[in-house]
Backbone:
């Protein structure tokens, strides 16, 4: 586990290589500045084009839905209670007193025998409000409050590791405090993992949102998630590539999870990192057709906090798994390397670069400075134009497609306004890069409960946290 830890984001060899590269670029910029600029533009343009093509390929590969793992309601209910294994549900929460009551209601709706279910509420030692709120409602014997001792880093994966140490279940999953899982999801996961055999160690359920219509941000977010879970992840499965897991509703075989070293407490997208480590270990991950509804972030600042953490964690994961390139290539193969670079690394880097590329485009149309004609040599200029026109049109089309798969024609206008969402992504990408350098393991808290009516006690409590 230590060799994959993000406690130190860059290894000594990576730091040395980066310094050498910067020195060489600096020398080149002094001696041949135009050549350096042309080279940088060419590399960025080719990489950006490759990332667009890769996403189109994923959507094409996953379009038929053949690689979604489906368990019918009848099959899920057909397993006798006596044949079901003990299932552990981990619920890490921090400063969430306003949603604990709803959480207990949602978990109580799970169709799984209580004598074979253990629910661990993983609460931080300094969070007395949430501990008190949980103590008032967690009355059933299968629900336990585990207090996570005060220590650094204060992250969700560290809390999950504390819960895993106490878990007795054959299978284990994670739900966030605001989640509303499909009541049959645990049964579906048991049936699916038994059918698939030992090579499958994890199933990722689909995530969706219950407050899609709250505002424009939640609508954008819902379209993005639909694309992610209904097109991109099934495409990764179809092409036998690693799957960056979501932070919730991933269902594991507990023994293999422990053998793998569980979650990295220093990685702020521990789920994506774990997905890559599963692939490197030869384990397979599937996408389960079962939906967990979450709260879509409806506040701009809160959204930026959450998304910058995700992007920072993706960059962490990308850098960590490039520490030993030959070992990574040997374990992941060429398909896995494509996914690691174009999907895991490419997602935040594209968000970060978008603002620069748009600014360059606007400057060209407004002023047409002569230096830009020199920087963009013809082959890469035309490739850049293709990326601008085809790439943007493709992403908008994918959002339109998601509106259709969601059976939400009313979201078509939101899909066409996607460039506004991309601007938010660019801000989050810039913040992620800054924090990766100066505060890599900081877990920026996301406030939940913003969907609740302003007059409700729960919403007031939720607004006071984070």
Residues:
């Amino acid at each position: 586990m230590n060799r994959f830890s993000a406690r130190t984001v860059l290894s000594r060899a990576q730091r040395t290589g980066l310094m050498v590269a910067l020195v060489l670029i600096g020398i080149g910029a002094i001696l041949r500045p135009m050549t350096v600029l042309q080279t940088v533009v060419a590399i960025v343009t080719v990489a950006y084009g490759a990332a667009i093509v890769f996403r189109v390929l994923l959507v094409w590969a996953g379009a038929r839905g053949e690689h979604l793992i489906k368990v019918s309601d009848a099959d899920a209910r057909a397993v006798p209670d006596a044949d079901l294994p003990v299932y552990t549900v981990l619920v890490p929460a921090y400063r969430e007193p306003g949603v604990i009551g709803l959480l207990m209601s949602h978990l109580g709706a799970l169709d799984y025998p209580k004598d074979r279910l253990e629910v661990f509420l993983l609460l931080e030692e300094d969070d007395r409000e949430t501990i008190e709120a949980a103590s008032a409602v967690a009355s059933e014997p299968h629900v336990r409050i585990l207090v996570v001792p005060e220590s650094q880093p204060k992250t969700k994966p560290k809390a999950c590791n504390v819960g895993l140490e106490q878990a007795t279940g054959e299978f284990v999953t994670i739900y966030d405090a605001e989640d509303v899982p499909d009541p049959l999801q645990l049964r579906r996961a048991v049936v699916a993992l038994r059918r698939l055999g030992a090579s499958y160690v994890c199933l990722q359920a689909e995530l969706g949102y219950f407050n899609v219509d709250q505002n424009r941000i939640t609508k954008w977010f819902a379209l993005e998630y639909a694309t992610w879970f209904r097109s991109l992840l099934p495409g990764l499965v179809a092409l036998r590539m690693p799957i960056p897991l979501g932070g919730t509703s991933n269902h594991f075989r507990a023994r293999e999870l422990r053998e793998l070293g569980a979650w990295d407490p220093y990685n702020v997208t521990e789920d994506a990192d774990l997905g890559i480590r599963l692939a490197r270990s030869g384990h397979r991950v599937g996408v389960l057709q079962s939906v967990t509804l979450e709260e879509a972030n409806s506040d701009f600042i809160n959204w930026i906090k959450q998304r910058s953490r995700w992007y920072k964690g993706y960059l962490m994961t990308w850098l960590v798994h490039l520490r030993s390139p030959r070992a990574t290539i040997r374990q992941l193969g060429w398909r896995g390397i494509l996914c690691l670079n174009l999907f895991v690394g490419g997602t935040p880097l594209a968000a970060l670069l978008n603002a620069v590329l748009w600014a360059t485009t606007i400057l060209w149309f407004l002023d047409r400075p002569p230096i830009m004609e020199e920087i963009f040599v013809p082959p890469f200029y035309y490739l850049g134009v293709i990326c601008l026109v085809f790439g943007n049109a493709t992403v908008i089309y994918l959002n339109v497609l998601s509106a259709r798969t969601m059976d939400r024609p009313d979201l078509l206008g939101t899909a066409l306004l996607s460039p506004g969402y991309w601007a938010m992504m660019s801000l989050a990408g810039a913040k992620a890069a800054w924090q990766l350098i100066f505060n890599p393991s900081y877990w920026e808290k996301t406030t939940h409960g913003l969907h609740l009516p302003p007059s409700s006690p729960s919403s007031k409590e939720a607004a006071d946290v984070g």
